[in-house]
Design goal:
The chain is α+β, with helices and mostly antiparallel strands and 200 residues long. It has seven helices and five strands; from the N terminus they run αααααβββββαα. The protein has a single domain, classed as Nuclear Transport Factor 2, Chain: A. It comes from Geobacter metallireducens (strain ATCC 53774 / DSM 7210 / GS-15).
Length: 200
C-alpha cells in the first residue's frame, strides 16, 4: 500500500480537473476537500498552539464525506455479523480514530500535489471517481474513490491507490489477527493505538 499517497486522499480534488454537475460524487468530495485545503493552508491554523483546533476542524471536514461506519463494516467483512450492537459501535469509533490520526500528519504535509480527473461512473446507488495524481517530481499514480448514495448524500466508503483498496488492506490485517488471536486481541491492539494517540 502506497501510504505516501494518503495526504492526497483528502486534499487534491480541489486542485483542478473538469467541472462536474453540482451534487455529483466528484462535486460532493470536492466541496469537502476545498474545506480541508482551506484549513491546512490557513497561516493562523498552522501555529503550534492551534494544533488541537486544526485537528478538530480537519476531523469535521473529513467526516463530512467519509462513512466510517460503512468502511468499518466492510473492513470486518464476515466477522462483522458476529459482533453485538455495542461491539459494533465501539469498533466503528476505534476504526474512525485509527484512520483520522493515521493520516492527520500526512494531510498537514500537503505540498501542492495535482490531480487529473479521468472519469466518473455511477451505477445506481454506487459511484466511482477515477483520477490520476501527479507529484512535484512528476511521479504519477492512480487514485480512485468509491462512494455510495445514502439518503441523498454521496459518502465515500473506500479509496483505491494504484489498484490497492484501503478497506481491503485493513480487512486482510483484521482478519489475520482475528483468525490467529481472536477478536479481543484486535480490540486490544486498536485500544492501545488509541491510547498512544491520545497520550500527551
Amino acid at each position: 500500500m502506497k501510504w505516501f499517497a494518503l495526504p492526497i486522499l483528502f486534499i487534491t480534488l480541489a486542485l483542478g480537473g473538469p467541472v462536474f454537475a453540482q451534487g455529483s460524487p466528484t462535486q460532493t468530495v470536492k466541496k469537502t476537500v476545498d474545506e480541508v485545503v482551506r484549513i491546512v493552508s490557513d497561516k493562523e491554523m498552522k501555529k503550534p498552539q492551534n494544533e488541537k483546533k486544526r485537528r478538530q476542524e480537519l476531523k469535521k471536514a473529513i467526516g463530512a464525506v467519509f462513512d466510517y461506519g460503512e468502511m468499518a463494516q466492510r473492513a470486518m467483512a464476515r466477522n462483522w455479523r458476529d459482533r453485538s450492537a455495542a461491539e459494533k459501535k465501539e469498533f466503528v469509533s476505534l476504526f474512525e480514530t485509527l484512520l483520522e490520526n493515521s493520516y492527520a500528519d500526512k494531510i498537514e504535509s500537503y505540498n501542492q500535489e495535482k490531480i487529473v480527473y479521468l472519469n466518473e461512473r455511477i451505477e445506481g446507488e454506487y459511484a466511482e471517481v477515477r483520477s490520476k495524481v501527479v507529484t512535484a517530481k512528476r511521479d504519477e499514480y492512480s487514485l480512485d474513490y468509491r462512494l455510495m448514495n445514502k439518503g441523498g448524500r454521496w459518502m465515500a466508503y473506500d479509496v483505491v491507490i494504484e489498484g490497492v483498496s484501503l478497506v481491503s488492506n485493513y480487512r486482510g490485517q483484521f482478519n489475520k489477527i482475528i483468525t490467529n488471536e481472536g477478536y479481543p486481541a484486535l480490540l486490544k491492539k486498536l485500544r492501545s493505538k488509541r491510547a498512544e494517540i491520545k497520550a500527551p
